[in-house]
Amino acid sequence: MRNTHTEERKPSRTKTPTFLLELPLFAEAGQAARMDAHLEVGRQFYNAVLSAGARRLRRMRADPAWQAARAIPRTEMQERKAAFAALRERYGFSEYAFHELARKLRVAWLAEHLDAVLAQTLASRAYRALNRVCVGKAHRVRFKSKSRGLDSIENKRSDTGMRFVLEPSVEGRPHGFLLWHDDRLPALIDWDDPVVAYGPRARGADREGERFYVQLVLKGLPHHKPKHTAGTDTIGLDLGPQSLAIVPRQAEAQLVPLCAELRPDARAMRRLQRRMERQRRAANPEHYDDKGRPKKRGKGAPRWKESRSYQATRRRKAARERKLAAHRKSLHGRLAHQLVRTGNTIITEKLSYKGWQKRYGKSVGRCAPGMLIDHLRRTVAKTGGTLHEVPIRSTKLSQFCHGCGKTVKKPLWQRLHQCACGIGPVQRDLYSAFLAAFLDPTDPLPSCARYVVPWEGAEARLVAAYERAKERAKEGQVVPRSMGIPRAGARLPKSLSEATQELLFLSNRGKVEAWKHRSEPPLLQPGEPSELRQG
Ligand SMILES: [Zn+2]
Prior knowledge:
This protein is an alpha+beta fold and 535 residues long. It has helices at residues 29-62, 64-71, 77-91, 95-105, 108-113, 116-134, 263-283, 308-342, 353-359, 361-367, 369-382, 392-395, 428-437, 448-474, 496-506, 511-516, and strands spanning 18-25, 152-153, 163-167, 175-180, 183-186, 205-208, 211-219, 234-239, 243-248, 254-257, 345-350, 386-391, 416-417, 426-427.
């Protein structure tokens, strides 16, 4: 056996770099049922090891020697380490001991489903979970429930047990198969994908909803796209929960919706959510009163039941969620690279995404603007640039007007900046992004003098960006309401009272105040925003 007695040993670091490749598998009904059976046995086995291991951990911690070892000051490193190592040895709490345990537990009918190496990797997994509790990184371990099952199983060897093979075919390009027991599951391989061309070798199967995937650990480095070149411009950004205004100092300005491609996915997700709700209701009528409202639950209330179809829907939703997250990440990456191509000095206001989460939960959940900023920061850093986040409290870019130097709060519904001093009308997010672009990040206080010259060149670009966004909306692109573009064919407020309701709804929480002053004399003072509202 490769593993030695030494404790705290990290999984041996391979010197050769590796990467992961995931391929979908074709499974017929019979094959899928057998795979499910294997995974179910894997689940029970994992739970058995976890339970036995948890007992060992409890006994070890109850030993007075454990408290004594903890009392050794951290400065006496050697002594402390030796004391803990002795305890682990005595109670069999090590990866090696868990492999021994796995050997004993893998008996009779279990062995038919689970080969020795898979059992060993499951034991390692259980050990790692318990060890996190042992060293205080986790509070408890989770047993795998029957309904959720084991998501994946892993083999660390490519010559025995579950493995992946390539076989030559008549068409020239080889076919890939996952071999597991007596089943051969063909994999769907896109040979034109440059990542695949590296040639797969072995290990691991993952289950996702009703589908199976094989995950291969491949030697070598993943395929990298040709290096992106970084631009030299400075870019001002104004990030909203659903939209992004991009204003470089020189290049073209843009107003784009965030992650618009995710809308259909998010819709499908909500449908699954509603379906789960219906299934839960159908299976638990005793938890609802005759008006269909959920009853208050006291102690001793009957347990909630989960129907099989409910569990299936939950699995599908989980799979969908993983996919959505991956899709979002790639969209963020694309946007970040597109920005860096223009310039790698980026200035934006530091925002509280936590606060947004409370207020615009749905769209923030879909577009994840905070993650976008993190992604952007990493991408920019890779090219030697900087992302400056200036404090919103001192800058107040969304309220500032460079023509008269006044800061005036705009109500949320007012999507244009138009000031009596002659600036505007211009879309407010684009205007904030413009102000950010020409800000000095070391002294982020907007001053009028700074903006006079840049405004000459920028005004036309901002107007053009807004016009382009309008064009795209007309062509059918879905744009968030916050961009201030009337949707093609959208219902427009017909009467003032109707408009009032809608506006009040938009300007929730505190913003109502600003709205109340709306009916003051129409005479505009410098710095006062006009009442003009598009749409
Ligand atoms: Zn002004």
